[in-house]
Specification:
- The structure is a single chain.
- With about 110 residues, this protein is of the alpha+beta class.
- It has one domain.
- The chain contains two helices and five strands, in the order αβββαββ.
- A five-stranded antiparallel sheet has the order 3-2-1-5-4, with helices on both faces.
- Strand 4 and strand 5 form a beta hairpin.
- It is globular, with a radius of gyration of 13 Å.
- The termini are far apart.
């Protein structure tokens, strides 16, 4: 589920193209959050300029282990219908197990 396949690469390209088109990428970071439906482990990928300074780990044992600010944004996105459309300042839900969290960086 978490290995690079064609659909995964396409989703990342869509996320980054949206991110670049509608936001100044120097001010924003996008986090891809994927929940494994079988193990419930969570994989977090940072996409953007501020990834070096990101305090997030790559893997968490469950959603409950994520930092509170990520859990809060994820809770909002989980209420949305899965789609690749951007829904709010929070981010968007790509499917049942994949979410993109939009974070404005303080410059």
């Amino acid at each position: 589920m978490f290995h690079g396949n064609t659909q995964e690469k396409w989703r990342r390209e869509v996320a980054m193209s949206y991110h670049k088109k509608y936001h100044n990428t120097q001010d924003y970071t996008l986090y891809q959050v994927k929940v494994d439906p079988d193990t419930k482990r969570v994989h977090v990928s940072c996409l953007g300029m501020y990834c070096v300074d990101s305090g997030l780990k790559e893997w968490y044992e469950s959603v409950d282990d994520l930092p509170k600010w990520v859990r809060d944004k994820l809770a909002v996105l989980m209420m949305l219908e899965p789609t690749l459309d951007y829904k709010s300042e929070v981010g968007y839900r790509a499917n049942d197990y994949e979410f993109y969290i939009h974070v404005r960086e303080k410059c």
